[in-house]
Amino acid sequence: MHTNQQRYKPLRTFFLLLSWALTFCACNTTSTPKPEEHQLSEKFYQNLLVAFSGHDYQLVHTGLDKINEAGIADKRTRYLEAMLALIERKPDVAVTALQDALVMDPEFGEAHNTLGTIYMQQKKYDLAETEFLKACDSAMYQTPEKAYQNLGNLYCIQKKNRQAQGCYLEAIKLRPGYFPPHYELSRLYLQTQRLELAADEIEKARQINSEHPGVWLQIGKIEKARGNQNEAIKAFEKVMKLQPAGKFADLANQEIESINKVY
Question: How far apart are the first and last CA of the chain?
Fold first, then answer.
């Protein structure tokens, strides 16, 4: 079996050659001498993405450093810097890179959305809401349902159930086959004792991804709330079959124990 290093050796060699040689495009289209204008070549950027996908983060660092030294960074490379910083658990570095990207393009929806998730994790809820709303309103953002989903999660954390419900419904409207809002909406309905609505939404989530252990945990909780203990146990056992260890398995086991204590 090839190691990751062996697998990406040709890419590494090619990438490093590019980084040291003619990897930037020079633009000089008129007969009048002009200062050489450099810009990031698409091939160089795509190689950065391949290295990132291959978890060769040191190579990505090398490429980004050369881009920054050449003064040709753009919003894409700033966003890639942010993703790298998040992997390395440096949220403050990621925030700075995302803010730089947004200076370059205030309508960069993905950057607003990612910045919002960082702020939400840091419990800076007002800042997170602002960023998610900007992502939702960005005409250039191709996946606004992600921002509505995250905004719904933010409102759930703050116990703003009506606003959360509205965001999840909007995400579903934009993309009916998007799993997260169906799942989270079912959880919200269960928390507010709307069992039939909760059941309807989790069934839609199950149709999208029947192998997600959280789906069966939610089905079990709904059946338990309905008083259908046998059906609930079957659902919880399904969770443990799909995920023998981990968060969902632990929660399912706790639910089964709570039922057995009563019955």
Answer: 52
